[in-house]
# Entry
Amino acid sequence: MNSVEIQDIVKTFGSFVAVDHVSLAVAKGEIFGFLGPNGAGKSTTIRVLCGLLTPTSGRASVNGFDVARQPEEIRRTIGYMSQKFSLYDDLTVEENIDFFTGIYGVPREKRAERKRYVLEMANLTERRNALTRTLSGGWKQRLALGCAILHDPPVLFLDEPTSGVDPLARGAFWALIHDLSETGHTIFVSTHYMDEAEYCHRLALMYRGKVIALGTPAELKAGLTAHSLLNLDSSDPLDTMRALEGLAGVLDVAVFGGGLHVTVDDVDATSARVRQRLAAQGIKVRKLEQIEPSMEDVFVALIEAEERKAA
Amino acid sequence: MWERIFVILRKEFIQALREPRMRVLLFVPPILQLIVFGFAVNLDVDHARIAWMDMDRTPQSRSLRDRFTGSGRFDIVSAPGSEEDVQRTLDRGEAEAVVRILPGFARDTARGRETEVQVLIDGTNSNTASLVSSYAASIIAEYSVEVLERQQRIKLLARSPGSPVSMSVPQVTARSRVWFNPDLYSRNYFVPGVIANIIMLVTLMLTALGIVREKEIGTMEQLMVTPVRPMELMLGKTLPFAVVGLLDVVLITVVAFLVFHIPLHGSFLLLLFCAVLYLMTTLGAGLFLSTISHTQQQAMMASFFFSTPAFMLSGFAFPIRNMPVAVQYLTYLNPVRYFIEIVRGIFLKGAGVDVLWPQMAALAAYGIAVVSLSAMRFHKKLD
Amino acid sequence: MSYRRVRAICVKELHHITRDSRSLAMALAVPVLMLLLFGFALSLDVDRIPTMIYDQSQTAESRALVRQFQGSRFFEIREMVSDYASIERNIDRSRILMGVAIPLDYAKKLAAGREAQVQILLDGSDSNTASIALGYAESLVRSYSLELRTAALNHRAGERLAPPVDARLRVWYNSSLESKNYVVPGLIAVILQIIAALLTSLTIAREWEMGTMEQILSTPLRPAEMVLGKMFAYFAVGLTDATIAVLVGVFVFEVPFRGSLPLLAVSTCVFLFGALFWGIFISAATRTQVAAYQLGILSSFLPAFLLSGFIYSIENMPWVIQAITHIIPARYVVTILKGIFLKGVGLSVLWPELGFLALFALIVFLLATRKLNQKLG
# Structure
């Protein structure tokens, strides 16, 4: 049985379509990544799945419960971490844990064990009496995750859990997520950090309310293999971009860090033509080589394709 | 279910007691209001300050003056010498009235010619002014009748010497008996009413704020995805304030009794029971306001604009009897009105359920209506 | 102090105010609604006191006395009853406030030239209404008694004499003796005080909460400039409120306006400065909007309502509290408004009050600036 199933969900706010006919399924134990820029509809979809918002049309189920008709059953079997840190910052770490233990109705005999587990997992055992507001971003994040899994829910929804957290803490956080997945938890996580996408088992790319790509990271990258990607480092990227415009065999040019990523259909022939054109314009080529596309390349390419389709 | 209510309760208390400002807010307004209404608020107009302008300066004018001071209702605070002085005295509000005795007062009365005593009254405060005018008029009228009596007697003696000097004339006097508050102390009237105000102040706004604050900081969303039921959440968020409200009732009653010596004629238990009914309405209203506000600022504004008219139109400071009829009907929608009537009834009149049942029924109906209304609006949904 | 920075802050605040149409509507409409509702509803006039009469005597003489009560505008005779119990029951249920009992031997005593007593039974729980009602009832009985005495004396002497001394009563300032005429000017002051504190108390706390304060701190802006800039923005709103309130007072409630308009304008401005600075001071002293708001209400509404002399006269208060009222600006503005509206007095009488308001505004401005400085440091 799939942990999450979504069929043709639509959610509108007035005339604004936040989620536009989305369908997908997430298997048990999977880490499912939800990628997309801000405002793409990721949070709205997650809120629909948690029963916080009623879908305008379509059906969705979590753990076999219908989101529109059985939100209370869903709430017993999920953990949720919202985009914004949302624990009580005027309570201590331990008081927050105790509070949510009571709210989730964790059985009395399991309480001590769950609390120890969460404190250890979040590495907060020594700071259990600290006021939550005195914790730094990474600690808060782990505490929030801890409070969301106190009742050991089979499905976890994490809405941009790592936004505003430093890279080191982000790494540690993802390690926790992997541990959870290995113990059979399904994790539905949204992010706008492309590098984090690599940690997921499967991904959905969301753009303007639509899922525009769905698959494992490798599958998504493979989708780009019809074309090849060149990394071009030149003396003047802006002039280079202008120079390459309309050049036969060049499908797309995108700024990437200090250099450019050039999408081409034939690596050898086009590389020669690029060198030729740039030399003619007096632009020095420091480096021109074929590279493996990153998630970000995939993402940019897909979105541009989507925009071309719209235009 | 009780488990979840209990953890919410515990959380609310920890949060409230950890915040020093909260402790201040829970206890300073009650004490402040008690002091002000117990000591300062006094509408009694038994003493009026008057200025005495005697342009006649005769034993007769002085005897009239003695009647004013002897009545116990007037304090003579100044003796203006000129028109400008009179004007200034009234302009500055130094006296509520000026009594002016014109030159020739003694001579004219002796000749049996009609004469007048002028009383200039500052009408700014219409109540004081009408009482001052009726007191002054009756003192002058009494003096006048006595002068008349003397003149008649002289005439009578002149016509038939030897007739009895004293004659009996009929007179009517008023003997008053004041019930419930025989000394007519303002504080006996106001202090019990403070209970109603304080409960509203503490419960309405804090409830609305407490819930909207959780919406604002996002913890409400976190709670919504837990198995907690709306009813449990509502109870957990409101019970702490209900407890505080009842503590305030006890506190104010004790202070009223010990410090202000305000008699509690009725049953304290009945008072507590009615306070619970009243709390249901104010907490319910607070919940309702929280369902229509998105930010704490909106919640505060909303509760302010609910509680101010509720306070003003409760009969606490301004008698409902005096309001325009339309507004009088409006006050039937105001829960504070009923509770003020109950509190005053229990404290001053010793009234019981047999007298107060209509007010109690109104509060109960109101409470049930507003609590169910907000329960209906209180979803575990964001849309 | 830079004029341009003050102006920049002021313009920014005006944007906040005008963008948030809901708050703006509240800031402008609510004072008017409050003034209309309370101006009509809050009356301290004691008249038409619900009364019952128990006439045991049932004679021409007793009916003459009853007619006196019926003819007075202060009393409304609800019913003539035939026992004490009905009076007691109706007082218990608050249906009437007063009962009058005329004794059985009333006419007989009067005929014998003796003293007849009329009993007044009064619900004293509302001490104010009760004492005023008692005053009216006693005066009515006394003047009726004097009439009887005069008539008896004249009859005995066989010659008619008019009572020689006549009280000539003249009411100044509020000759119709309507309480709205003094409630409304006071109400304007109280409402302005509350609105001013409400508007400004949130303004700096909000910037702390949203984090924009840190942004502003990194600019060369000085605390005094911030305080002034914010004050002027809300001043525009407050002044609009004041203008509307005065117009409503004069044209809707027909409160006489006898004084000078420029003096009213000047004193309102000075008062608004002080009240707005006070809100900003509170805002600077607290970090959260909720705390700022509650402190704002607590420190403006209660004193303005209770200790300003708006309805509860200051002379009647114990001296400690009288002393406290001297530091409450609402007290002075209530005096000024009543003075200008009803008495038509000018600066020669009101200068101490105006002076205090100016001093208050200055001190609170300095306090607010200092507080903000401390917070930044």
About this structure: The mean pLDDT of chain B is 84.
